Amino acid sequence: MPTSEPVPRSLLGRAFTLLSVFTADRPSATLSELSRHSGLPLSTTHRLVQELIAHRALDKDGSGRFTIGLRLWELGALSPGALDLRERALPYLEDLFEVTHHNVQLAIRDDLEVVYVERISAKDAVNVVTRMGSRLPLHATGVGLVLLAYAPPEVQERALDTELKQFTKHTITTPNALRSALATVRRDGYAISDRQIETITYSVAAPVRGPGGDVAAAVSVVVPTQTRTDTVLPAVRACGRAISRALGWRRV
Amino acid sequence: MPTSEPVPRSLLGRAFTLLSVFTADRPSATLSELSRHSGLPLSTTHRLVQELIAHRALDKDGSGRFTIGLRLWELGALSPGALDLRERALPYLEDLFEVTHHNVQLAIRDDLEVVYVERISAKDAVNVVTRMGSRLPLHATGVGLVLLAYAPPEVQERALDTELKQFTKHTITTPNALRSALATVRRDGYAISDRQIETITYSVAAPVRGPGGDVAAAVSVVVPTQTRTDTVLPAVRACGRAISRALGWRRV
DNA sequence: CCCACTCTTCCACTGGATGGAAAGTGTCCG
DNA sequence: CGGACACTTTCCATCCAGTGGAAGAGTGGG
Questions:
Q1: Last residue of some domain: B59, B75, B91?
Q2: Looking at the structure, do residues B66 and B90 belong to the same domain, yes or no?
Q3: Ordered per-residue pLDDT tens for chain A, 252 residues
Q4: Does the CB of A82 have a partner CB in chain B at under 8 Å?
Q5: Closest residue on chain B to A133 (Cα)
Q6: Contacts of A19 in chain B (CB under 8 A)
Q7: Which of A26, B7, B176, B207 is deepest in the core (most CB within 10 A)?
Q8: DSSP letter at B165?
């Protein structure tokens, strides 16, 4: 979401730059805000916004602010990478939530990031930092470690060559620590992320495999640090296997 | 999704026409199929597709077919009209599912259609005709009747002036029948849709109110015709009220 | 090999998109 | 009330991003 980068010359590039102004922290924006944050001239912004509204990609609320429209959500719901997986996994995620009573998350890998495709949390849940659609770096979360440990070697190399962002003093920040953590995941078949994003939670994660045995996603439970991770680990791993079977995976 | 309509002249119009080729029944498509179904010339289609891929709005799978990409899903996840509501409602929907063990759905109104924003179903659920993001006409579903009964008068008038599509021999197809059904909903405070879409199911629906008391959504349970609707009705209504409270509604 | 189908590339041309400037609207303050 | 300011909308001569027919490349089957 650049104001320091050159504005794209292509119309679609501009439209997507404009849509990128909307984030979880800025779910709505005025025309001037859209212009400022996108770097597009005001009248260009105005014209683009009007057309995006015509296509229901943007909506205008009562106070003159714009929000992402239903049409994008409908189209997004057709994305097999996210929602197909989510729908098949949901019953098992709910089972996991029922037996653990902790926050449950399902995530996939998109390049060097985790994308959360589902989260089930209680009404009075322990600190929640993710939502549907949100992203975090692979190295800093349980699901991310699982997805990275089983990712193609060139993906792993790229991740190890990337600066590892620090969230807490527990976050993995060196390539050697990450390499070691990934080896541990592959040896154990699961990951425990220890206060890497928040100092009050652990994340226990297990792989979800597609029909061909590839790790297509990861499921995790987030627990407060007072909770022993081994009380939820079997359920998380069982959930990962159940979803894998629902996706067509068979143990060889 | 027109091949009989003129192709838009504007680029954004063309892009959205192209994206509209993807449906629940056609989650992936080849370049030629996209060209054929959108009415856009092959080379235009090719160029648009390449750029949409660059923006992650489309993905290409291993067999050369295109699918809707993650980026649209991420953007759509920011749509307050759908997912904000969904996230607040999810715990209550899960409760409803636990106590009824039947399919639970949450829907909003978009003009003269129902848009389903959540569905929770068991692994061995009775016939499922809706999915997240899918649409049905207001007159033919429990949630649609609720949403229409409490919609602004001009919306109701427009619905009554529209041809009422028939799905089964039980579907409401005349304005008088619809007017009467809406009056019943407003009198009772809930709706029962009797085999209107599928001849083997009833849908029991109740309103979900926003902070100002407006009916912002509707929640329903779909049950097989052997099930007595009055066994689930109190739970559906309680769920509607619980979600309403979570949205800030207070009974006056 | 030929055929049918799908996908990719090319480029002279053009019309959809541009954005600075002006006009319009709304709010706040002296 | 008028002025200042911020935000939104409109206008239009200009221009360059987008166009699509045609040719070429690739694939699979007979």
A1: B75
A2: no
A3: 445 578 899 999 999 999 999 998 888 999 999 999 999 999 999 999 999 999 999 999 878 899 999 999 999 989 987 777 888 898 899 899 889 988 999 999 998 999 999 888 876 555 566 788 889 999 999 999 999 999 999 899 999 999 999 999 999 999 999 999 999 999 999 999 999 998 889 999 999 998 888 999 999 999 999 989 999 999 999 999 999 999 888 876
A4: yes
A5: B74
A6: 75
A7: B207
A8: -
B157 and B212, same domain (yes or no): yes
Say if A27 is an interface residue toward chain B (CB within 8 Å). yes
Provide the residue range defining the domain that includes B101.
80-246
CA-based nearest residue to A68, from A52, A45, A46 = A52
Q: Can you tell me which residue has its alpha carbon closest to the C1' of nucleotide D18? A: B11
Contact B97, B105 (CB under 8 A): no
| Distance of alpha carbon B21 from alpha carbon B74, whole angstroms | 20
Indicate if A119 and A234 belong to the same structural domain. yes
CA distance B182 to B192: 11
The residue out of B75, B91, B125 marking a domain boundary is: B75
Q: Does A234 touch chain B (CB under 8 A)?
A: no
Pull the structure tokens for residue B83.
Answer: 């997912």
Nearest nt to the CA of A29 via C1' is D7
**Nearest DNA or RNA nucleotide to B9 (CA to C1'):** C16
Q: Does the beta-carbon distance from B73 to A67 stay under 8 Å? A: no
HSE on the CB side for A187, CA within 13 Å?
7
B72-94 per-residue burial string, b: 16 or more CB within 10 A, e: under 16: bbbbbbbbbbbbbbbbebbbbbb
Measured from the CB, is B64 under 7 Å from any atom of strand C? yes
Kind of pairing, strands B66-68 and B201-209? Answer: unpaired
Q: Estimate in Å the CA A64 to C1' C27 gap, whole number.
A: 15
